[in-house]
Write a structure and sequence with these properties.
Length: about 280
């Protein structure tokens, strides 16, 4: 529906740090349904369509456990193309005995779990945008129980689990941050996102192009939470896809006006939000 394509800015890719690459690849292939696109001794690019890397898994040297009460990844979210795909993966999880959380967010239906290192994962399917309810630029979202009986009625009969469908994309990312107002200014004034939903003073959801959210931001780890240690498992960086070179040039200038730095590393422009979450800016 165009929410993850030009002229919007959106999350395209996520890189996470793990303790044991082999353990992680078993999970991501057998449980989540990714395929390996490319692999080295310490990294693997994971794909749903055999062409596009959605997730990079990187094994740490001398890793530390994922820190509690720190900023960083709450979850990244894989968006499935159809509701029936969500029904299929529920059935797959049941067959494998995988414990999951779930929620009906009104705009979408979601499943939640974590990889072996505690990296949070959401797998979801959007409701049609005509079903989203907007009021003064704010979209209605909730945390209602998921109606599994209704969802599983969508399951395609006679088909076996074949992994993530080719149309799967990175739908959004949700981050723990230390200061919600400071973070809001960075993403809205620096990166041109708009606030589309807010949960009191603890969480907000931002997007471009009237999507329900490309990023979620929360202070649920506590206001003033520190950034994790460099050798902690968790988020390494995420990639934002900008529409074109002019948009990136404008964003870089705006980000620097917020007081953040932008550097060029191996041809990629890199910045960090006020909580230390690293962002690659690509076109």
């Amino acid at each position: 529906m165009g929410y993850h394509s030009k002229p919007n800015t959106f999350v395209e890719h996520v890189t996470v740090k793990v303790k044991d690459l082999e353990r992680s690849l078993h999970f991501y292939q057998e449980v989540i349904g990714f395929n390996i696109l490319e692999q080295t001794k310490t990294t693997a690019e994971l794909t749903a369509d055999g062409k596009t890397s959605l997730l990079t898994v990187e094994e740490l040297d001398n890793p530390a456990p994922k820190q509690g009460r720190a900023t960083g990844l709450y979850h990244y979210a894989l968006l499935l193309p159809r509701r029936s795909d969500l029904a299929d993966i529920v059935h797959h999880f049941v067959e494998k005995g995988i414990q999951i959380g779930s929620s009906d967010h009104l705009v979408s239906e979601s499943l939640y779990l974590a990889d072996p290192d505690g990296n949070g994962i959401e797998i979801y399917a959007d409701r049609h945008p005509s079903k989203w309810k907007w009021n003064n630029g704010q979209v209605a979202m909730a945390v209602d129980p998921l109606n599994f009986q209704d969802l599983l009625a969508e399951k395609k009969k006679g088909e076996t689990w074949k992994g993530l469908p080719a149309g799967t994309i990175m739908g959004h990312i949700h981050l723990h941050v230390s200061d919600l107002q400071e973070t809001k200014e960075f993403y809205t004034k620096g990166l041109d996102f708009e606030v589309v939903s807010q949960l009191g003073g603890q969480a907000l959801f931002i997007s471009t192009g009237d999507y329900h959210h490309h990023l979620g931001l929360n202070t649920w780890m506590g206001a003033g939470a520190p950034a994790p240690e460099a050798n902690s498992t968790g988020l390494k960086f995420f990639t934002l896809r900008l529409p074109d070179a002019d948009a990136r040039e404008r964003v870089i200038a705006d980000v620097e006006k917020t007081g953040a730095e932008v550097s060029e590393e191996n041809g990629t422009f890199v910045t960090s939000d006020p909580s230390g979450n690293r962002i690659h800016l690509v076109i």
